[in-house]
Amino acid sequence: MPQREREKETETEHHYTFVLKQQSFPLSTVSVASQHCPSFKCSRVSSASRYSFDSVFAVVVMFFVPLHLGLLVLSLGKVLLLLLKRMSHLEGLRANSSHFTLMGEPFRILGGSIHYFRVPRDYWEDRLLKMKACGINTLTTYVPWNLHEPERGTFNFQDQLDLRSYVSLAAEVGLWVILRPGPYICAEWDLGGLPSWLLQDKYMQLRTTYPGFVDAVNLYFDKLFSVIKPMTAKGGPVIAVQIENEYGSYAKDEKYMPFIKNCLQARGINELLLTSDNWEGLRYDGIDGGNEDHTINPRLKKLMITYSLIYKHHHVFHGSRVPYDMLLIKRVSINLYMFHGGTSFGFMNGAMDFGTYKPQVTSYDYDAPLSEAGDCTTKYHLLRNLFSQYHSEPLPDVPPAQERRAYDPVVIQQHLSLWDSLHFTDKPFTSERPVNMENLPVNNNSGQSYGYTLYETTITSGGTLNSRNNIRDRALVFVDRQCVGSLDYKTHELAVPDGKGARVLSLLVENCGRVNYGKALDEQRKGIVGDILFNHTPLRGFTIFCLDMKPGFMKRLSDFKSSSVPGFFQARLYVDGAPRDSFIRLPGWGKGNVFVNGQNLGRHWFIGPQHFLYLPGALLRSGQNQIIVFEEEKADDRILFAENPDHGKTIDVYKLPFCTLL
What we know:
It is a single chain. This protein has an eight-stranded mixed β-barrel with strand order 1-9-8-7-6-5-12-10. The longest helix is centred in the first third of the chain and has 18 residues, at 3-20. The chain is of the alpha+beta class. Mean pLDDT is 82; it is low at 1-42, 44-90, 287-301, 315-324 and 656-662. It has 13 helices and 36 strands. The protein folds into three domains: 3-51 and 90-388, Glycosidases (TIM Barrel, Alpha-Beta Barrel), CATH 3.20.20.80; 410-416 and 552-642, Jelly Rolls; 433-540, Jelly Rolls (Sandwich).
């Protein structure tokens, strides 16, 4: 790094330290939400402290030395001492009885959520600049444990997951940051951000003080907060940290929330602490004072989380919500969830299960002010006009829209059947009984987290196959590689036709997404999770293939020739000039996933509601690009592109009976 850049970096870090260095005070309840506002979620916050005189003195000296003003500092004498005395009264973000303060001055949080893991890194700056130009002053983001520790003891904070760079970029843009590190985050993300290898322990009790969970959290937090800490007391723009997420609606262990709070403080997190929950949940979230929230004090500071949209499930139309300026009139601090939703790329979507299992779609557009592709919507401009009334200076100009392109259709040129692809997988595993995904001896014994698993055994007759509801979540059933039907959470029985001699029975099981919210988290093991009966007798003698379709596997695929389904269908997209964003359309296809240059864009399924997959130009390169469609059921001969998606009709969610549950 050039000398001047090193000096600039040092100056910036010391400046942040001067603004944010704090100590810890006990957690106190200061935030509630009205039960008459069902679309809002409320955060509870704890107090932050003043700077110490010594800390400010050290910071001021370090701040001036890189500017070659050391002699000036020494000559200031009494002037400097008076200045330091004033600085000793500066505060970080603090919650008083009627308002937040930052550096001792009243501060209204105009927050917005953008998840770095849902936005290509090349687009972080564009999205944050648009956030700043809208009048937002605070960025909030979740931190997904399952991405940062994909295998037990193996951590990743690089490239797309470079949290420190993301927060630093927010600071450069001029945004404060609120971190929501979990360990559970919900976020309509697989298992609420918890790593699936936790479920290898058959006694695991997630989000409790169960020793197996506590040990894993401690190891993860040791690593995570070694990354986060420099962005707080040692020089970052982080002004608040959330304790867990929505625990009041879960509330299995009264010792759990104090444990998480202690985890943060023991690792040097001294910033303002928050919890987040719905109205009833605030009464049962396990933090001291939680049972006092039913007594509403109108002087207490309110921090509302407003929802842009209800997330989408497969086969369910999307809905929209309307923001209200009455919150700002009441001087309520707000956070827009989401300000920019982005995309749940790959297999990372979550699911809901309140009696009926509903996997969520790949798009996390959320009807947010910034669209999935980063466009400024009508909602964005309305909010910008509203927020501008609460800023003393003009807002920055809105960055120009990114160009998109509807590329010409590409024709499928090569085919590879699922069966021919099996020799590109890791060595199959044999077991007398079926084994769920998480307990397969793959990925350094951390199990399989996502994708498909193929189970094969032998049968000698026809009859009835009964899943006993042990298929998680959907299985295509084959006899001698011919599809005979499917099993899922609704269909548990299937007739298998008669045949001669021994035949291979294959079950291709898809993990459609683990539940991310509710009390079913501990039951989210995937694959085949128990005995499958054939003519009332449990099947035995399985060969099991892991098909998680990671980039390494996709790159190994070759010898394309067979065009049967399920299978992989390859096309080439030639990009002339600089790559542009686009959307992929597959109107003649059935169900599967799309991969571009080895990267998993997400799931496609003809039942909808999502019929367009966002293709960031950042994943393309000038010249030749590889596109592979994994298709389960029905393949077409071409792939189409569009400049803009069509999300179908919009409905008013307030007219739906389930709205009262949100």
